[in-house]
Amino acid sequence: MNILANREKAKIKANPQYRSSSITLLRFTESNIALHLDGPIPLKYLVVTKKITEMIASEFYGNRSKAIEYCNQLILKHLNKPSFNEEQKNVLEELGLLCHAFKFYNQEQLNLIIQMIHSKPIDPYLYNTILSKLI
Prior knowledge:
The chain is mainly α. The protein has seven helices and no strands. Helix 5 packs antiparallel against helix 6. The two termini are 27 Å apart.
């Protein structure tokens, strides 16, 4: 990635009007990056996935299917069993694991979870914005 960044820097230096292509920008975003000017630094996604993996290993003896089933039922119980379409159910699967691993069950956290369930299928950027508030 440093080679690409250096090439882009040289192009910009040679021509201040130069703008990186969308393909080049996508290559830069293949990894987790963030700019935080103030406020708390959010958990890194690797920390989140590690915690979920550890929870599945310790509570469900590594059985991800059982963990998903249990966590889905639990989160639906906390959300008062609302109905979701198929895309939202897929998001619920991710968030059920997240909620159980981090014990996100207070009303403010559950409100963010509902927003995330509804937003991810139509606006992944909004989903990530809400996720950053949650973690």
